[in-house]
Design goal:
By secondary structure, this protein is α/β, with parallel strands linked by helices. It folds into two domains: about 180 residues, 3-Layer(bba) Sandwich (FAD/NAD(P)-binding domain), CATH 3.50.50.60; about 120 residues, 3-Layer(bba) Sandwich (FAD/NAD(P)-binding domain). Helices cover about 25% and strands about 25% of the residues. Strands 1, 2, 5, 6, 7, 8 and 19 form a seven-stranded mixed sheet that branches. Bound molecules: NADP nicotinamide-adenine-dinucleotide phosphate. The site of NADP nicotinamide-adenine-dinucleotide phosphate has 20 residues, from helix 4.
């Protein structure tokens, strides 16, 4: 973006296009505020890469992540949202209107709704980074089909790990879930399904220590955390689901974060900067569901609408 170009002014700028961002867009669009959504890397964020969403109310048979994002997108656009496939690279919240720079454009905005979501956490073990794309993945829906009739390892004991492991059973010949404890964090339904699936086996009390570097992943090295015993598991794929970290870098030094790094908001989704709200996983260490993120997006939007009315903007 060049310095000389005149910024484009918008009432509501929404950074991020997951369920929180698109719900905020729907509400502010219906208030005739012509919101602009900056999608970030992927339209829909994390849920767009989820195979199936079975716990979003209104879809008794479940819906694919992509299908849900498509519906949220269409609904927001129908009421006047402009969705821009671009990434915010700089934000200046020091004075109003706030300034947001993207790769392609510069904006000033009366209100900003931050819905930048969260990103998968890596394990941080030797070889992991080098082997991304050569067998190491953080998205079963994206990469599962590369592992047809192969053996894969999944790391993690939460809902993501189990859900993605179940998805991987459609492609892989075996799925070994390696978990650092002997108890799963995931909810009961997923737990039962995974336990009952013949293709899935569990390795308990075990962590991965290394992914040997080579042309492709062939095995992973392990360590039993109780006995200290080291071992290895032969596998062509390694899928890692050990949690997420909130995407707050854009606001470093401008907005407060809590001890876990999530943006701090009050009960009305307000950050400490007037007219700037946060919704979804960037500000939610607790629920992290599609429905709660969408709800937060709607809440932030309602606050933004009220704020603009009060200010006569
Ligand atoms: P999560 O619930 O935080 O689970 C992360 C898992 O990774 C835990 O089992 C944790 O072990 C393990 N782990 C963390 N760091 C590790 C490390 N360094 N080495 C080995 N293992 C490690 O994360 P998530 O599964 O991504 O889920 C995030 C949120 O989204 C949750 O609230 C979840 O309910 C929600 N979610 C819901 C659904 C659904 O409802 N269908 C689907 C996906 C996600 P410990 O258990 O020992 O801590």
């Amino acid at each position: 973006m060049t310095e000389e170009s005149t910024p484009r002014h918008v009432n509501v700028l929404i950074i991020g296009s997951g369920p929180a961002g698109l719900a905020a867009a729907l509400y502010t669009a219906r208030a005739n505020l012509a919101p602009v959504v900056l999608t970030g890397m992927d339209l829909g964020g994390q849920v767009s890469k989820t195979h199936a969403v079975e716990n979003y109310p209104g879809f008794p048979e479940g819906i694919s992540g992509e299908g849900l994002v498509d519906a949220l997108h269409q609904q927001a656009v129908r009421f006047g949202t402009e969705v821009i496939f671009d990434i915010a690279t700089d934000v200046d919240l020091s004075e109003r209107p706030y300034k947001v720079t993207t790769y392609g454009e510069q904006f000033t905005a009366d209100t900003i709704i931050i819905a930048t979501g969260a990103t998968a956490v890596p394990l941080g073990i030797p070889g992991e980074e080098e082997m991304i794309g050569r067998g190491v993945s953080y998205c079963a829906t994206c990469d599962g089909h590369f592992f047809k009739d192969m053996d894969v390892v999944v790391v993690g004991g939460g809902d993501s790990a189990l859900e993605e492991a179940l998805y991987l059973t459609h492609h892989a010949s075996s799925v070994t879930i390696v978990h650092r404890r002997d108890e799963l964090r995931a909810g009961e339904i997923l737990k039962r399904r995974a336990m009952e699936n013949e293709k899935i086996k569990f390795v308990w009390n075990t962590v991965l220590t290394e992914v040997p570097i080579g042309e492709k992943v062939e095995k992973v090295k392990t360590k039993n955390v109780k006995t200290g015993e080291e071992g290895e598991i032969k596998a062509e794929g390694l899928f890692i689901f050990v949690g997420h970290t909130p995407n707050t870098e854009l606001f470093d030094g401008q907005l407060a974060v809590d001890e876990q790094g999530y943006l701090k908001v009050d009960h009305l989704r307000r950050t400490e900067v007037e007219g700037v709200y946060a919704a979804g996983e960037v500000a939610d260490p607790h629920f992290r569901q599609v429905i709660t993120s969408a709800g937060m997006g709607a809440g932030a939007a309602i606050q933004a609408i009220r704020y603009l009315e009060e200010k006569g903007l």
